[in-house]
Backbone:
């Protein structure tokens, strides 16, 4: 795999200046999709501006705590993905990586209390011995539990322990967030699911989309901050 990436060829979800330099840091393969994650070095240098060069970023990661989902990370190429929590304890700042209304990855500042939870979508599950189920989540994490849930539902989990605090089923009336398609970054209330298609309500209008684009984030409202 190449260690470099041309800015002009970077995913459209990356909210970066594509003409300032030729190249940008390529992240290491991680739990998230390349299109729905950003390298930690780019987040610290270009988005949070806690360093002006990548060399300074490496020093920051070596000397100070930078937490992703409550776990210390020191690799500037670490892939930070959608809904991951970035914490800077020394600055007492916490952020969540979300999509803006144009479908671009941006950081949304959140409270310390909210930084202790995360919503993860169930993308697969496997039956184990003893009646346990292994749930595969969108962020590459796995949880083994006897909790009842289906693919497409979401878990509200605590960080960094990954204990299930709540199950958010994919059903009518739930608050959803769009992760893909032309409405990526939008949110609303789910009205109907028909096969692979779905309809949600937002801004006094009904909008059609694909079922696979839906990400359940709450019941009466979003459990986390999903926008700027």
Residues:
């Amino acid at each position: 795999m190449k260690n470099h990436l041309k800015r002009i060829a970077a995913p459209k979800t990356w909210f970066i200046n594509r003409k300032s330099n030729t190249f940008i840091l390529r992240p290491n393969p991680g739990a998230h999709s390349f299109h729905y994650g950003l390298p930690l070095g780019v987040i610290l240098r270009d988005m949070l501006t806690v360093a002006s060069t990548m060399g300074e970023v490496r020093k920051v990661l070596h000397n100070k705590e930078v937490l992703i989902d409550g776990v210390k990370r020191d690799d500037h190429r670490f892939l930070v993905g959608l809904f991951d929590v970035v914490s800077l304890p020394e600055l007492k700042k916490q952020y969540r990586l979300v999509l803006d209304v144009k479908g671009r990855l941006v950081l949304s500042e959140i409270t310390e209390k909210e930084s202790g939870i995360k919503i993860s979508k169930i993308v697969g599950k496997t039956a184990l011995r003893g009646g346990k189920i292994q749930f595969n989540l969108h962020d590459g994490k796995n949880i083994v539990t006897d909790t009842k849930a289906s693919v497409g539902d979401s878990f509200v989990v605590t960080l960094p322990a990954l204990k299930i605090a709540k199950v958010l089923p994919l059903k009518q009336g739930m608050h959803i967030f769009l992760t893909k398609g032309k409405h990526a970054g939008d949110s609303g209330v789910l009205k109907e699911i028909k096969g692979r298609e779905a309809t949600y309500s937002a801004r006094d209008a009904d909008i059609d989309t694909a079922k696979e684009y839906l990400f359940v984030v709450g019941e009466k409202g979003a459990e986390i901050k999903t926008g700027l």
About this structure: The CA atoms of residues 85 and 96 lie 5 Å apart. The first helix runs from residue 40 to 47.
